[in-house]
Amino acid sequence: MIKNTVHMDKMDNRTDKRAIQIIKLQGMAKVLIFASALLPMLASCVKDELHDTPHPDKGAIVVQMDWSSLPPEAVADNYILNVDGYEQTVSGTTNTVERLSELGEHSLMAYNIPNGITVSGDIASVDEDNGTRAAGSRIKPMPGYLFSLSETICVEADDTLRITAKPRQWVRQVNMELTVTEGDYDHISTVTGTLAGVERSVDIRKGERQGTAAEVRGTFTVDGNKCRASFRLMGIVPTERQTLKVDIVLSNGDTQRIVSDLTEQTSHFHDDNTPLMLTGNLRLPMESGMTGSIEGWQQADGGNTDAH
């Protein structure tokens, strides 16, 4: 009887041990299940914390314009940012491109569309002067100021690319002042000037003038012995001669055309963007049948002698 009791006690001990092991295994299984459910949550939390932006797979672009090389009158109220063909009209100095960009290289352009200039694709051209009877080679004499920039940028994912962009001014003003040094200026009725060999178009992506020759025509104001006119030019065409035709109508109905070559005086036109001032001496014909002339052309400080 005693032996049986001892045997049963041993069996009970074994049973208890097995039960304890089963309970432990069940507990470990629950822990593993809980841990496996928790791991993705932990991983997602870690992943979010490692991102620097809300756009981990793409990059943002912020463009800050540096206007320091442009005169105040050439800074436009509105202009266009173009990234890979996506256009956005903006204003002010600093702007964020609305569309996020993929990792890698992208093209960035910025330009304005001033009065008197049309942009078609990458080509900006001065509009034709519809107020004249001339052919299409005559363009508006006083368009607005055009600026542009074009560059390749590299965008990183999960980052913001900040760019300082310095635009280039394309349009430059020319002021002319003729002083009557011979003849009776009181008999002058009207004076008009036509300047040939000027540039019409630029490629704003390549940053190149196209060599498309045109002419501009404007009216000189007459104040005593001074005749003044202003033009705004996209540039000059180096392969052409820059000739100025001045047509003078006198009070008695007589007309005079004086042709003057300004090729030398405008040869460095593209070297600066401040107004170019040209002065010359106008000699009117002293009597009928004689011709006048313009002599002594000189460059002077540009000033502001806008005659329009």
How would you describe the overall organization of this protein?
The structure is a single chain. With 308 residues, the protein is an alpha+beta fold. The chain folds into two domains: 59-169, Immunoglobulin-like, CATH 2.60.40; 172-300, Sandwich (Immunoglobulin-like), CATH 2.60.40. Helices cover 16% and strands 44% of the residues. A hairpin with a 2-residue loop joins strand 16 (213-223) and strand 17 (226-233). It is rod-shaped, with a radius of gyration of 39 Å.
Average predicted local confidence, pLDDT? 87
> How many H/I helices?
1
Find the count of extended strands (DSSP E, 2+ residues): 21
Biggest beta-sheet profile = 9 strands, mixed
Q: Which strand-content bin applies to the residues?
A: 35-45%
Q: Give helix and strand order, one letter per element, not per position.
A: HEEEEEEEEEEEEEEEEEEEEE
**What is the CATH topology of the largest domain?**
Immunoglobulin-like
In the CATH classification, which architecture of the largest domain applies? Sandwich
Number of structural domains: 2
What is the CATH top level name of the largest domain? Mainly Beta
Shape: rod-shaped
In whole angstroms, the N-to-C terminal distance is 132 Å
Q: Class by helix and strand content?
A: alpha+beta
Over all CA atoms, what is the radius of gyration?
Answer: 39 Å
Describe the structure concisely.
The chain has 308 residues and is an alpha+beta fold. It is built from one helix and 21 strands.
Topology, element by element:
Blueprint: H1 2-50, E1 59-65, E2 78-83, E3 86-91, E4 94-96, E5 104-111, E6 117-120, E7 123-126, E8 138-139, E9 147-155, E10 159-165, E11 168-169, E12 172-182, E13 188-199, E14 201-203, E15 208-209, E16 213-223, E17 226-233, E18 243-250, E19 255-261, E20 276-283, E21 293-300
Parallel strand pairs: 1-10, 8-16, 12-20
Antiparallel strand pairs: 1-4, 2-3, 2-5, 5-9, 6-7, 7-14, 9-11, 12-17, 13-16, 13-18, 14-15, 16-17, 18-19, 20-21
